[in-house]
Design brief:
Blueprint (H helix, E strand, L loop, with lengths): L15 E6 L5 E7 L4 E4 L3 E4 L6 E5 L4 E3 L118 E5 L5 E5 L11 H4 L2
Antiparallel strand pairs: 1-2, 2-3, 4-5, 5-6, 7-8
Amino acid sequence: NVSQDSPLVLQSDRNVTVNARNHMGQLTGQLTVGADAVEAQCKRFEVRASEGGRVLFSADEDEIVIGADRLKVTGTEGAVFGHSVETPHIRAEPSQDLKLESPTRSLVMEAPRGVQVSAAAGDLKATCRKELHLQSTEGEIFLNADTIRLGNLPVGSFSSSSSSSSSFSSSSSSPSSSAPRQTIYELCVCPNGKLYLSPAGAGSTCQSSSNICLWS
């Protein structure tokens, strides 16, 4: 017996082992405190809160459950999962940015009922080093904004007296000082889908034989 105000100390030169057996004498649970590790062998291992008895951690052959309000991983490399992670919500710390990154391979987001990316109070920016593809196999690509701008489109110049094969030239040549300033352009589409601008006129000034289309 140990007095109420005194701790219970179990000490051994090797390890301390606590066994639990059923009514038939079979070993059903074992807790071993050794010099290198604490080992528990049982069907289910649980850690409960001191108040309310809520399960904070449990482990069995099928799953491991962490029931704490917040799981914090303090390692500099974060958490590494060998296979998949299943969660209904991913959120960054307050006042911190959330970054999804694949340093050596590609990053893929897929959902059978759609993928939504939104920025309620800021800009949405997509950049890439090579080509950016927007594709809809059965629907449409709908651009809805107060202002839609297509920047850095090539500009061709039109001359009705020239032949169709040479009626377009690069916009790099400076216009004559006496010519009025061109402020309205026609948006043209080459056969391969490339867009370019052509000075607007009384009729269409787009021609498929323009050098912009031929050299694209």
